[in-house]
């Protein structure tokens, strides 16, 4: 994986149409989401991405099927792996944020907020060290699985390196939350040889493993994806021993046609461990004609791997050089985040495209998800008076409030003499409530849910 782009507050030189701006929230400038394929038969849920380059601010973004932001939080540094998860039975949002190298290794912290967007924890990896950007997976027991990297001196002359070469190994940590205390640790250099790599030493180091995902298998053991060995490893959770290898130079499975991956990401277990989803980059350097999201069927008795289905972008071929993921939805559909290419595609179980969105040119995003989420911010909505797209008057927004169906303006000549205006359906992130009513000196906007029940209001302000 490699990330490109600068600090979160900087805006790339771009046309104004590639960045969203709001009268009510001048501090927010997310990239514009373009819908390339309208949602037809798409699964329930919101879309989650973390734009890491291109026009607009860096940050974490939830948007709907129309491409409208539901919640956006800018970050001064890069954010990755943004999603909704459950912690102790309650919904939370999680992500990594920090800095990164051109080799795609990060140094940062893991962030968790509740459904009111209050920060629960900001966690470093175990030992109070910087965590890597590739994984922040909450477990069924309320812990977290995170990735780290370590630098160790080894003799790499057999691979074209030096007698005292610097080798980067992958580390899996299971940590307690919210303390970050290390519960267990697994190191690739203790179990996986340098001879499994498809890369070689550079002038400065040998990134032989490049861990990029961790997942729990059905039996509680771990699945680890290593980009640079082209392999998926099942790791015994207690002993750390490798139970089996899927793909790579030393696969324990006979790999059927179409099952071999290259530079892959995001290995996840399904159907009791007999089906594995993988985002197969196939690059870089390029090995396959195009990137794919694939489902691989495992026969654990005969130790064979068979391609169940491959999901490819069309009509154009995408070759994702880094990043990417494949999320299997409850109905069997698949969401593909194309990493280095600015697309998010949802496929029906049979392979038909049923939704696609796109970041502006130059935009990148590590992973994309469609997930259920309901949020009600502790921060109140905001009201502003001005002109937006030629409409002069009063505008309102509530960043993160997912249950707003409509708005109603309350206004009057004094703060104690207010009357109700008409109910106006919510129209995206920012809603136009109409021109300033005659005689209105003070005003507040009330957020209403689908049943017409008030769920929040802006502070009363003088117009």
List the helices and strands and how they pair.
Elements: E1 34-37, E2 46-49, E3 51-53, E4 59-63, E5 69-74, E6 78-87, E7 90-100, E8 106-113, E9 119-123, E10 136-138, E11 144-154, E12 165-175, E13 182-187, E14 206-207, E15 211-216, E16 222-226, E17 231-235, E18 242-247, E19 254-255, E20 265-270, E21 275-280, E22 292-299, E23 304-311, E24 325-328, E25 334-337, E26 343-347, E27 353-358, E28 364-365, E29 369-371, E30 382-388, E31 391-397, E32 406-414, E33 417-425, E34 430-434, E35 442-448, E36 454-457, E37 461-462
Parallel strand pairs: 12-14, 19-23
Antiparallel strand pairs: 1-27, 2-4, 2-29, 3-28, 4-5, 6-7, 7-8, 8-9, 10-11, 11-12, 12-13, 15-16, 16-17, 17-18, 20-21, 21-22, 22-23, 24-25, 25-26, 26-27, 30-31, 31-34, 32-33, 32-35, 35-36, 35-37
Question: Which labels suit this protein?
Answer:
single chain; mainly beta; Methylamine Dehydrogenase, Chain H; 2 domains; five-stranded antiparallel beta sheet; elongated
Short structural description:
This protein has 463 residues and is an all-beta fold.
Description:
By secondary structure, this protein is mainly β. The chain folds into two domains: 356 residues, Methylamine Dehydrogenase, Chain H; 81 residues, Immunoglobulins (Immunoglobulin-like, Sandwich). The protein contains no helices and 37 strands. The chain has a five-stranded antiparallel β-sheet with strand order 1-27-26-25-24, with no helix packed on it. Strands 10, 11, 12, 13 and 14 form a five-stranded mixed β-sheet that branches. It has a five-stranded mixed β-sheet with strand order 19-23-22-21-20, with no helix packed on it. A hairpin with a 5-residue loop joins strand 15 and strand 16.
């Amino acid at each position: 994986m490699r990330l490109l782009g600068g600090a979160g507050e900087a805006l790339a030189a771009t046309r104004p149409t590639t960045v969203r701006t709001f009268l009510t929230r001048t501090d927010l400038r997310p990239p514009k989401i373009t819908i390339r394929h309208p949602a037809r038969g798409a699964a329930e849920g919101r879309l989650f991405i973390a734009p890491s380059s291109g026009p607009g601010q860096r940050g974490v973004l939830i948007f709907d099927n129309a491409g409208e932001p539901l919640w956006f939080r800018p970050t001064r540094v890069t954010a990755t792996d943004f999603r909704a998860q459950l912690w102790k039975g309650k919904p939370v949002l999680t992500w990594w944020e920090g800095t990164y190298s051109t080799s795609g290794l990060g140094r940062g912290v893991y962030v968790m907020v509740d459904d009111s967007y209050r920060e629960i924890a900001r966690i470093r990896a175990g030992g109070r060290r910087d965590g890597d950007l590739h994984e922040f997976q909450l477990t069924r027991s309320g812990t977290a699985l995170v990735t780290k990297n370590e630098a160790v001196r080894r003799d790499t002359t057999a691979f074209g390196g030096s007698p005292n070469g610097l080798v980067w190994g992958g580390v899996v940590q299971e940590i307690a939350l919210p303390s970050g205390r290390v519960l267990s640790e697994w190191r690739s250099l203790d179990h996986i040889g340098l001879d499994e790599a498809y890369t070689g030493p550079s002038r400065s180091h040998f990134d032989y493993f490049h861990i990029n995902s961790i997942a729990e298998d059905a039996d509680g053991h771990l699945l680890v994806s290593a980009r640079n060995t082209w392999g998926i490893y099942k790791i015994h959770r207690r002993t750390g021993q490798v139970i089996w290898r899927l793909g790579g130079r030393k696969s324990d499975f006979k790999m059927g046609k179409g099952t071999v991956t290259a530079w892959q990401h995001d290995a996840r277990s399904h159907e009791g461990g007999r089906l594995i989803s993988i985002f197969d980059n196939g690059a870089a350097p390029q090995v396959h004609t195009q990137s794919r999201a694939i489902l691989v069927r495992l026969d654990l008795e005969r130790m064979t791997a068979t391609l169940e289905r491959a999901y490819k972008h069309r009509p154009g071929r995408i070759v994702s050089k880094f990043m990417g993921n494949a999320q299997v939805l409850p109905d069997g559909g698949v969401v593909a985040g194309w990493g280095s290419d600015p697309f998010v595609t949802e496929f029906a179980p049979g392979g038909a495209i049923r939704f696609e969105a796109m970041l502006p040119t130059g935009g990148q995003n590590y992973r994309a998800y469609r997930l259920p989420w309901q949020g009600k911010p502790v921060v109140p909505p905001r009201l502003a008076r001005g002109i937006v797209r030629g409409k002069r008057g009063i505008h309102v927004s509530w960043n993160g409030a997912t249950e707003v169906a409509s708005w109603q303006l309350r206004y009057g000549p004094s703060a104690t003499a207010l009357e109700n205006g008409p109910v106006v359906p919510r129209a995206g992130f920012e809603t136009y409530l109409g021109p300033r009513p005659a005689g209105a000196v003070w005003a507040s906007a009330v957020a209403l849910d689908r049943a017409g029940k008030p769920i929040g209001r802006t502070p009363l302000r003088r117009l």
